[in-house]
Amino acid sequence: MARSLGRICKGFQRLGSLSSIQTQLRQPSTSVSVSVRGTTLIRTMVQALPSLFSSKPRDFSLPNSSWGSEMMQLYEHYNSQCEVETEGGEKQEGPWRRLPSYNRLLKYATGGVYLSKIIQSKARLFTRNIRDPGAAFEYVLFVNSEEQKCVCVFQAGHLLEGPPGHVHGGAIATMIDTVTGTHATILSGPVMTANLNINYRSPIPLGSTVLLESSLDKKEGRKTFISCKVTSSDGSKLHTETTALFLSINFSHLLLGE
Ligand SMILES: CCCCCCCC/C=C\CCCCCCCC(=O)SCCNC(=O)CCNC(=O)[C@H](O)C(C)(C)COP(=O)(O)OP(=O)(O)OC[C@H]1O[C@@H](n2cnc3c(N)ncnc32)[C@H](O)[C@@H]1OP(=O)(O)O
């Protein structure tokens, strides 16, 4: 435990002081401003993420050759609203913001006390650990701070099969947890999923693109309640409906695992 804590402290030392991160935040090339309450932490984390990796991290939420036309259309729909033009022709932030996505959250604060050091260093985010483009989880998240909403465009690859020709329910749950969990983190800081209640209404064809829409229901103390719908890309078919509960945690909770 002491070793793990030491590693985490080292990790945060490498992150640099908060003021140096804030200086980074002010630089145009790295500036992201998610302007909802309680988002300073997540903004800092999102901003700091790239510097936690040894070499240039790959942002998995950018288009690749496996993205089909539906995925691209929806991506462009939301991406075009990340920056808008004023009447005077100036560019300014729009209502939506694309979230970058890496295959690891923290390089140094790994936890995982049951793993050897070598294996710990190979730990990767579940949804981003298959390198073959298009094979599994292809997705991109956008957040709308004003409306306290999050959307995710998700293209389900051939390795996610459950019933023949359709997406595995666990893979769907994984994406719902990812989207609502990210949304809850943006709204409330570090959280863990306490409850996910999913109703599967219609199967998702393998290879198709669907839209996940997450919205805040309410916040009560440490509890953040979120709802999420999965629909076909044109919104005409409802695939799943979910309510989720997230509880705010201290980082030490992840280490102690209690
Ligand atoms: C650090 C995050 C950083 C994220 C950065 C995001 C950037 C984006 C990048 C990448 C995206 C990746 C996003 C992935 C997201 C995935 C998230 C997961 O999958 S998390 C894994 C699955 N979840 C677990 O393993 C939890 C296991 N459970 C626990 O650890 C505990 O039970 C915990 C923390 C949930 C609660 O434990 P207590 O001890 O803190 O709290 P107690 O006292 O038990 O409960 C507090 C209140 O909550 C209610 N409560 C607790 N559990 C409940 C439940 N299941 N249903 C209803 N109420 C519950 C209780 O009744 C109590 O309520 P009363 O205060 O009395 O009103």
TrEMBL record:
Q: Which Gene3D superfamilies match?
A: Hotdog Thioesterase
Q: Which reaction does it catalyse?
A: (9Z)-octadecenoyl-CoA + H2O = (9Z)-octadecenoate + CoA + H(+); hexadecanoyl-CoA + H2O = hexadecanoate + CoA + H(+); (5Z,8Z,11Z,14Z)-eicosatetraenoyl-CoA + H2O = (5Z,8Z,11Z,14Z)-eicosatetraenoate + CoA + H(+); octanoyl-CoA + H2O = octanoate + CoA + H(+)
Annotated membrane topology: Peripheral membrane protein
Q: What is its EC number?
A: 3.1.2.2
Residue ranges of coiled coil? none
Bilayer-spanning residue ranges: none
Give the main localization category: membrane
Instruction: Report the domain of life of the source organism.
Output: Eukaryota
Task: Quote the cellular component terms of the Gene Ontology held in the record.
Answer: mitochondrial inner membrane; mitochondrial intermembrane space; ruffle membrane
A GO BP term here is: apoptotic process
- Localisation per UniProt entry: Cell projection, Ruffle membrane; Cytoplasm; Mitochondrion inner membrane; Mitochondrion intermembrane space
One annotated GO molecular function is: hydrolase activity
Thioesterase domain location is 165-237
**Record's keyword terms, sorted:** Apoptosis, Cell membrane, Cell projection, Cytoplasm, Fatty acid metabolism, Hydrolase, Lipid metabolism, Membrane, Mitochondrion, Mitochondrion inner membrane, Transit peptide
What is stated as this protein's family in its record?
Belongs to the THEM4/THEM5 thioesterase family.
What's the protein here called?
A: Acyl-coenzyme A thioesterase THEM4
Native organism is Sander lucioperca (Pike-perch)
